[in-house]
Each structure stands twice: as C-alpha cells, then as structure tokens.
C-alpha cells in the first residue's frame, strides 16, 4: 500500500492495520486479480459482503440510540438514505480510496475508478477489513469520526419531516427542549384551523397554521427552519 | 412474562434478561399497544429494526468464516435463504414465541398469532432485545445453540450447488479432505467427455461425467449425495 495513504489513515483516524494484507485485499478489485492469476491474490468481494452487514448494524444502532422517538418505518427510510451506493461512494471519494484501489487494465480504461458501484463496494470492503482486523469497536470508532458527524449535521435529513429536521438541527450541539403549543383553534369542527407555535428552550421560533394540529406543527417547524436558513 | 417461558429460556439457552421490560417490549405487538393506550406501552417495532441488522451481521460473519471458499455471490444467496421471513417465522414457532406475544383483539381474531410476517418480526425483536440487554456476544451464544447448528446440518443448503452441499454434509462433524480426480477425458476437443471421481479422505464416493470438468464434478457430487441418501 501507498505509505502516504497509510500515514493518512493513522493521522486522521488513528487506524493502523495489524494485518496489512487484509487492507490490501480490501483495495483489490476482481479485475486486478483476473489479470494477475499467477500471484494468488484475493479480491475484495467477500470482505465487502461482511462490511455491508457491519455498516448496516453500526448505523442502525446509531440511529436507534439518537432518534429515540422515531418510528421503525422512519428509521428504515432514514437508514436507507445512509446505507446506499450514493452515500458510500461519496465517502470513498472523500477518503481518497479511489486513488488506492488496484484495478485491471480493462476496468481502468472503462473509467472504473470513478464508477459509483465500485466506490461503494470499496467503502464497504474497507470497513469489512477493519472489522476483521480489529473488531466492531474499531469500526465504531472510525464511524464516530467520519460518518456519525455527517448524520448529526443533517447531511441525510432531506428525507425527514420538518419536525424531525428541526429537532436534529437544534440538538446538533446537545439537548434542547422543543415544545409545540397551540395558540389558536378556530372554526367549526369540519373546518377547524389550528395555529401552533414551536418553542425551543422557552424561546418562540415560529408559528404555523393548518387544518390539523399535526399539519400546523409541521408548518411551524418548516418556517423555523427557513428562518434559521438551514 | 409467563414464568414457564422465562424458565425455558434459562434452561435451554442460559438466557436471563437483566432488563425484563426489554423482553416484554419485544413480545408486544403494535395492535396491543393501540388497545391499551392508557398504559404507555411500547411495541416491538423499533427493537425489531435493530434485531434485523444484528441477525444480518452475525449470520454473515458465520457464513464468511465457515465457507472460506464460497464466492460473494453465493454467500449473498445463501444468507438470503436464512435471513428471511420463512426461516425466522419457523424459528419463532419452534421457540414457542407465538404463544407469548401480546396481540390486540382484532389481530388475534384475524389469526395474527399464526401470521408468518408477524412471527418473523417477533424473532427479530427477540434478538434485538437480547442485543440491547446483553450485547453481541450473548446473541452469538444464542445463535450458536439455536441457528448455526441448523446451517451446519444443511437446513438451508437446497440453494447450493451439489459440490457445496456435499462438502457441507461431509464436513458436518469436522474437516474432511475432498478431492475431485479426472478418471477419463475422451473424444475430440469440440465433443469432449470428462469422467471424474469424488474422493473423501481417500475413499471414492462416486463418479460422474459431463462435457466440462466442472459439469462432471457436479454430477459426481450429485451421485455421492444420492448414494448417501442425504
């Protein structure tokens, strides 16, 4: 492996592989193995199979703990925006993994180094190798530095409703008491109109109105997010 | 929880929950929560979300370690036959979980207690609760007693090719050296016929023939499996 890359893993994330051949395998594409049959190399596919499951569990656990009020359905959708090709390939690029992978010539010529599915597999195989080398806690430690802060910062929140987005944004630096308070409830039963205020640690951020209490709360949260220019 | 059931968990698997309310939550269906709104109960859906990921990882790791020669594609197919509704609902029934779940009356009348999807969720939520209560090692310990022996005994092998099935069957009690030996190779290039013998610890089990070496090996393994009445 490239010394500079190893140094970066150590300096940025404190990662030093005990079994460097696992890391090498994680960065070896099947097309490279096929072109070097004499060398008895192994490609990264089996390690990627494992890494995929490691990421599924570690990210599920993070979401389970940090979104105690979120329903199973929302958790599943939220997880799907993180555990996916678009996110993982982006992670691989940010980490410079695309420069380290060993590709066959054909794959190289077809621009495989930039292919999203290949980069996604690469992120998974890196995590699989780290898991095999040092266990689940080492993976968690890496994710705490590299992935969980992105989740906390709202990088994947576009799929969530406004109330959840607002909660996530307000609580990014710690607990904040968020309350929704009905200010007005007017009109007859079949044509009711609610006006709700959203209040964070006692301070009113915005108001919103709607035909149901829920709709009014969402409108208030949406306005609060706009006011904060999130 | 039913005392007899708790005793069974302890006697059969050595499982004693520290936080019994986690186990109760794992056995509480949303339909029961909806009918008992005053009691502030939680249903098992969030725990099931977590349990699903725990099973994905633990079973992936088992397959990764026990099938060192299996490709990523086969591992994925193999895992899919184990991590699925059909298997997990069967596990839940074997464990008597169907008798323990708390259901709403509507769900009960609709025969929910026998519904495959519900039973599958129940197995996942049980594993999720065990993970939250005692960590990944406790889950592994449970699976070593209840799930991994089924895999080893070939309960999910119907999806595998004959060579893998034979290997699994022969090695169920320990390592066995399996060899495929070409006995004959006859005919011109475009019409070749191979005859191959499969040999376990030096003893010939069967022979098979085919147009390629691979096909002949599969045929030999298939015959060996039939001879052994697997």
From TrEMBL, chains A, B:
Active site: 52, 124
Pfam families reported for this sequence: dsrm, Ribonucleas_3_3
Protein name as catalogued: Ribonuclease 3
Cofactor(s) the protein requires to work: Mg(2+)
Keywords on record: Cytoplasm, Endonuclease, Hydrolase, Magnesium, Metal-binding, mRNA processing, Nuclease, RNA-binding, rRNA processing, rRNA-binding, tRNA processing
GO biological process per UniProt: mRNA processing; regulation of gene expression; rRNA processing; tRNA processing
CDD domains cross-referenced by the UniProt entry: DSRM_RNAse_III_family, RIBOc
Main location: cytoplasm
GO CC annotations on file: cytoplasm
Domain DRBM residue range list: 161-230
Subcellular location: Cytoplasm
UniProt-listed HAMAP family: RNase_III
Annotated SMART domains: DSRM, RIBOc
GO MF entries: double-stranded RNA binding; identical protein binding; metal ion binding; ribonuclease III activity; rRNA binding
Biological role: Digests double-stranded RNA. Involved in the processing of primary rRNA transcript to yield the immediate precursors to the large and small rRNAs (23S and 16S). Also processes some mRNAs, and tRNAs when they are encoded in the rRNA operon.
Annotated ranges, domain RNase III: 6-135
